[in-house]
Specification:
Chain lengths: 157, 795, 287
């Protein structure tokens, strides 16, 4: 039996009748039409689907849309405000923290949580907190540099 | 108006804004009206005859549009193998002809590996397609299977193809010099078994396609995650579906990584294209990660017995290599080339060698097909060589750095003829090694290592002085070696009336940053702001026929094609300018963004004026057509040969065998560099993949059941951020004489060099226990621990 | 990766959840954080017809102290435990272990109760709760009951909870100043589950001796177990390297070690000894 689900994504409410088995990531991609959040695996390892649910980073492929009924969600599309990039987005661009771009939205959403919890993270902390985000292109070197750079920029504000 | 030099500048990438804001256009993002969804029914068995496929329940499932099996696909041919190895074609080195076995898009007689597709369900929704796929029942005739490389050709092994008795796909050899003499005269002969394990590429974006047949025009558009859309189009149209190539447009949009696995023509896009023509509706398919493990072409999988003949002062007298290469259940698009011409030809390495003999047997097994994976044959060659050099050093009780130095080919430019057919372009191998030892205080490390050992800590260093062959390749040469295709690249440069430029390249970017680097190249040569240059790739509807991106060929071959077109444009521009300036064309030069009379900068017309004039040809030279666009196809005269020296420091936990990479240093010579930041990024990513092969990754089949045991990211260990260090990189720059840009290619060097650097480091760490070799990768903690236990019990 | 179809029910209270469980019986599964259940459902390894979401049952969340006992609601997330100031001060083993679970996103959703009820043989929590001598409160149609940890883990993915019960609370004694704990884990490089994981809770007397040791083991066997042999061997001994090494030598006893791609039986037995030693050494070294 379908359920009516209302989820606010980047400040915009989306209401749809969905089968309970609809994954949150598919609600976001197919019903809300926001394709920046990606599906990279089927065992909850890769983190390409990472979004923020009520302020916490979550793998949207490992949630049902019905679980998120009434929730506030932030996706990569909501990071830039009024056409201005978030410092983390800027930092990834500046430090070449991406190559193919597929893991990047999830990385940025994860990085946002890292810097919210650890405003001055050590390299070890960054690497440990990135355990849930796989990248096959960069070898992580520039991703770490991007997050370090974002930490400095955001601290300077 | 002159612009700052862009060549050699680390400018930010122009493609990034869409990726960092989630606006990338990946194939799975595409939505089309009336779209249907495909789900494939796949064999759960490694080897099974198909008695009957019952689709009745699936067809009745709500939302299902159609269910097709192989027998429905009449008139559809086998997926082609694009590389032949046959004596009658005079292909060098063939000992036993390649068995060209068929590979049908949906097999209807026998399933030959777990995941082999046998039916497709097409429905109005993904849910319906998946639910209905579960309702297809197959009456299987389960057979025995063989998956292990070393067992495939043994008597009694299950036969994968009737057309390949004993599961032998081919036999091939290559060599030069007096190998027997070298071994007879040797002071020391080192023999080792070396296993280069099977890998799964695991690009982060799973493969996907959307096929749309438009009945009213007869046009088929295929969006597909391809590294080479033209190749996809040609193979699918001409060889498999028999439809006109000019009625098909293949678009490869943003692609999330390839590493080789997205080169090949796969079953799924062929089936979806065919089905769309049947149904007159778009058909889409996106792989799950589990399907990717079962169907994306795997990499590597060699078992090698190597012998190296040494003189007592450390000279390499000869090398004899016998390799069995597992091709999997079918011949993938380029598969036969990888363990032959991309492998044997690199066995001379950076060393002077007396003689080399390489013998390769390709075998079929009931596993996923194997084909090119980052490095494609060259990592396998480098691994054999660098392991043998270290093993030889150990046998001679010499320093591995000294053995390398003793044998380096001296600096040269122009040609160095090896024993294995290829002639290197330019090299300074000792120079790269010297540069490495500036980054790495080797003497100090040996002291630290000895101190640490006394305290029960096991540090080790591994070197890898590598060379590889990339920028593939001269068409005539590869044709003579069995390639079914040319390996040139196309580059069209279209100047617009208002002076902007659109560049159309046959190369494709799936992470390499060509939208930036190719714009740098063209803008630099035209001395116009980079904002005025747009790079288009990945669309056969817009771009002249190109061969695509793999083999580190884009900047060198694709870039040179663009360079040629820019040159033609400048020459035409000079004629137009000469007319405007009432001078002779031979007196015009292009400097600082303007066409000027040589030695008289005041007598000049700017770029923009010439561009406009070409399209508004009122005051215009006789005999010259209006317009300003040029197309070139560049066919290189040789491969290019990047080289370098890497060093890895590891610490091995004596209690658990766990290996930690403490330090990784890389010196690479990729010739000239367009964007250093992007090249560094390529090296970083390559190192991560090569180190991962050494320590963590490995596709494992259970021999008894033929099941792929490591079939998901839960079991197959891709490297995570906390497993790797920061990399220390440096470069030497020895331009190649092969192309006018002097660029060799950088995409695969990190992967090629790093695997032996890491393994050599672990062996070095354990050398105090008398360990001089570990046969099998990955060096899991248990494997390392067992090696130590075995060594300890020998003493 | 789409689950098979099911009916979804959202419970607002424990009572509601129990009523739904009673109604649908073995056709129903509870959905807590979902990070064990949903991966199984996506691969269609689990196909429950009814899913009962207890994510919004407020009674089940929260960490508090009740007179020397820490009471943790079953729906408390791993991250809530990892970041709890109360637990860092009163039972630091729990935040330490929480930081080892999965990855940050998993920790934001996965729950202590969900993990314990699922009883994955390679999960981290079972070792910790055994070492801490935890007690579990379960609520069923007939009311509440308390289950001691040594009676909780029965077998592979099997606990003492009946199919109509809900785990509501986990209770652990607060650690006194003389109690030192540590968790030592050898993670699977891909899944990051424990190939072996050993939690050690050492009670020290004033004179540098270990008066009591409580050791929980996870990863290598079909279920988490108490390392009784190690506990007995170290009791009353000094917390020095030699005693710890000797005590750790029986760490594999009574563990039904399973061989897999990560290790043979022999290797995993060896790892158990190594990590029992490391856990005890780390605990003893704590200030």
């Amino acid at each position: 039996m379908k359920k009516s689900v209302s989820i606010t994504i980047n400040g915009v409410k989306h209401t749809h009748e969905v089968e309970p088995r609809l994954l949150l990531v598919h609600f976001i991609r197919e019903l809300a039409g926001l394709t920046g959040t990606h599906v990279g695996c089927d065992t909850s390892q890769c983190g390409a689907c990472t979004i923020h649910l009520n302020g916490q980073a979550v793998k949207s492929c490992t949630m049902l849309a019905v679980q998120a009924d009434g929730a506030q969600i932030a996706t990569i599309e909501g990071m830039a405000k009024d056409g201005k990039l978030h410092p983390i987005q800027d930092a990834f661009w500046e430090k070449h923290g991406l190559q193919c771009g597929f893991c990047t939205p999830g990385m940025i959403m994860s990085a946002a949580q890292i810097l919210q919890r650890y405003p001055k993270p050590t390299e070890e902390q960054i690497r440990h907190q990135l355990e849930g985000n796989l990248c096959r292109c960069t070898g992580y070197h520039n991703i770490v540099k991007a997050i370090q750079h974002a930490a400095e920029t955001m601290a300077g504000k | 108006m002159a612009t700052a030099r862009l060549l050699g500048a680390s400018i930010k990438r122009r493609e990034d804004p869409r990726f960092i804001t989630g606006k990338g256009n990946y194939t799975d993002d595409l939505k089309l009206p009336g779209m249907t969804y495909a789900a494939f029914v796949r064999s759960p068995h490694a080897h099974a005859g198909i008695r009957k496929i019952d689709t009745a329940r699936a067809i009745k499932h709500p939302g299902v549009v159609a269910v097709f099996t192989g027998t429905d696909m009449t008139g559809v041919n086998s997926l082609p193998c694009g590389w032949d190895l046959r004596k009658e074609k005079n292909i060098p080195g063939v000992v036993q002809d390649l068995a060209m076995v068929p590979h049908m898009p949906l097999t209807s007689d026998v399933a030959r590996h777990v995941g082999d597709p046998v039916a497709v369900v097409i429905a109005d929704s993904q849910d319906a397609a998946l639910d209905a796929a579960d309702l297809v029942t197959v009456d299987w005739d389960v057979k025995s299977s063989v998956t292990a490389t070393a067992l495939a050709a043994q008597a009694g092994a299950a036969q994968v193809h009737a057309g390949a008795p004993g599961n032998v796909a081919f036999k091939w050899e290559l060599g030069g010099g007096d190998v027997d003499g070298a071994f007879k005269s040797a002071d020391v002969v080192v023999r080792k078994r070396i296993v280069n394990q099977r890998l799964v590429a695991n690009a982060m974006e799973p493969r996907a396609c959307v096929a749309r047949f438009e009945e009213s025009t007869g046009d088929l558009t295929l969006w597909v995650t391809s590294q080479n859309p033209h190749v996809h189009r040609l193979l699918m149209c001409a060889f498999v579906l028999g439809i006109p190539e000019h009625k098909v447009r293949v678009i490869s949009p943003d692609v999330g990584g390839g590493f080789g696995s997205k080169i090949f023509l796969y079953n799924e896009e062929v089936v979806c294209s065919w089905a769309s023509r049947q149904l007159k509706r778009p058909v889409r398919w996106t792989s799950t990660r589990r399907e990717a493990y079962m169907t994306d072409a795997h990499g590597r999988d060699h078992v090698t017995d190597a012998a190296m003949a040494m003189s007592k002062d450390g000279k390499i007298l000869g090398l004899h290599v016998k390799t069995t290469a597992n091709l999997g259940a079918y011949l993938s698009t380029f598969a036969p080339a990888v363990p032959t011409f991309l492998y044997g030809t690199l066995l001379n390495g950076v060393y002077k060698m007396g003689a080399i003999k390489c013998e390769v047997t390709g075998v079929f097994t009931n596993t996923t097909a194997v084909d090119a994976y980052r490095g494609a044959g060259r990592p396998e060659a480098c691994y054999v060589l660098e392991r043998m050099v270290d093993a030889a050093a150990a046998a001679l009780k010499m320093d591995p750095a000294d053995v390398r130095r003793t044998n380096f080919i001296p600096k040269f430019s122009g040609a160095y003829q090896t024993h294995v057919a290829v002639s290197y372009d330019s090299g300074d191998y000792a120079g790269a090694f010297d540069r490495l030892l500036q980054l790495f205080d080797y003497k100090k490390f040996r002291t630290e290592q000895a101190e640490a050992r006394k305290k029960g800590r096991y540090l080790g260093v591994g070197f890898s002085t590598y060379i590889e062959a990339c920028s593939i390749a001269p068409s005539k040469l590869v044709g003579a070696l069995g390639a079914g295709a040319g390996l040139y690249e196309s580059g069209k440069v279209r100047v617009h009336p208002t002076g902007g430029v659109t560049v159309y390249t046959g190369s494709h970017s799936h992470g390499q940053g060509h939208e930036t680097t190719f714009a740098q190249l063209v803008a630099d040569e035209l001395q116009i702001p980079i904002d005025q240059v747009e790079v288009v790739h990945g669309d056969t509807g817009a771009i002249p026929f190109g061969m695509g991106t793999y083999g580190s060929r884009s900047a060198s071959v694709g870039g040179t094609a663009l360079h040629m077109s820019v040159h033609k444009i400048k020459e035409k521009g000079k004629k137009i300018a000469a007319h405007l300036l009432e001078a002779s064309a031979s007196d015009i030069e292009y400097v600082g963004g303007q066409f000027q009379v040589r030695g008289a900068p005041g007598k000049a017309v700017p770029w923009g004026a010439v561009a406009l004039t070409a399209y508004v040809p009122h005051n215009y030279p006789e005999g010259i057509e209006p317009g300003l666009e040029e197309t070139s196809f560049y066919d290189p005269s040789n491969f290019c040969f990047p080289f370098g020296a890497h060093a890895c420091v590891v610490e091995v936990d004596g209690d658990t065998g766990h290996v930690k990479i403490v330090r990784y240093m890389a010196v690479d010579d990729v010739g000239n560099v367009i964007n250093p930041m992007i090249v560094d990024g390529m090296v970083h990513g390559g190192i991560a993949q090569g180190a991962a092969q050494a320590l963590w990754e490995g596709a494992v089949y259970d021999e008894e059941s033929g099941q792929l045991v490591s079939g998901s990211l839960m079991d197959y260990a891709l490297p995570k951020a906390d497993m790797l260090p920061m990399y220390e990189t440096a470069r030497t720059e020895t331009p190649t004489p092969v192309n006018p840009l002097g660029i060799k290619g950088a995409g695969e060097t990190g992967t090629i060099a790093s695997t032996p650097a890491v393994v050599n480091a672990v062996v070095d760490a354990l050398s105090g226990f008398g360990v001089d070799h570990i046969e099998v990768m990955p060096l899991t903690p248990e494997r390392v621990w067992k090696t130590v236990q075995a060594a300890k019990s020998k003493k | 990766m789409y689950p098979a179809q099911f009916e979804y029910h959202k419970a607002g209270t424990v009572r509601e959840a129990l009523d739904l469980l009673a109604k649908y019986k073995d056709e129903a599964k509870l959905l807590a954080g979902g990070h064990s259940l949903l991966p199984a459902m996506k691969l269609r390894l689990a196909q429950p017809k009814h899913v009962i979401d207890i994510g919004k049952v407020s009674e089940l969340a929260g960490i508090k102290e009740e007179g020397g006992t820490l009471v943790i609601g079953a729906m408390t997330t791993h991250y809530a435990i990892e970041s709890s100031a109360l637990l860092k001060s009163k039972c630091p083993l729990l935040p330490e272990v929480a930081g080892h679970i999965g990855d940050p996103m998993v920790r934001n959703m996965g729950t202590l109760g969900g993990s314990l009820a699922h009883a994955d043989p390679a999960a981290d929590w079972p070792a910790a709760v055994i070492a801490l001598g935890a007690e579990f409160v379960a609520e069923g149609p007939k009311g509440k009951r308390t289950i001691k940890v040594d009676d909780f883990f029965k077998g592979l993915l099997t606990t003492a909870l009946t199919e109509n019960e809900i785990l509501t609370e986990i209770r652990v004694p607060a650690c006194g100043a003389n109690v030192k704990c540590a968790y030592a884990k050898f993670p699977h490089p891909a899944s990051r589950f424990a190939v072996v994981g050993v939690a050690a809770v050492l009670t020290l007397d004033g004179g540098g001796k270990i008066s009591k040791a409580s050791i929980g083991i996870t990863g290598a066997g079909t279920k988490a177990t108490r390392a009784k042999g190690v506990e007995a061997a170290i009791a009353g001994k000094a917390a020095d390297a030699a005693s710890i090494q000797a005590a750790a030598s029986s760490a594999a006893d009574g563990v039904d070690v399973q061989a897999d791609l990560q290790g043979s039986v022999e290797y995993k037995q060896h790892l158990l000894r190594v990590f029992a030693k490391r856990a005890m050494e780390a605990a003893a070294a704590k200030k």
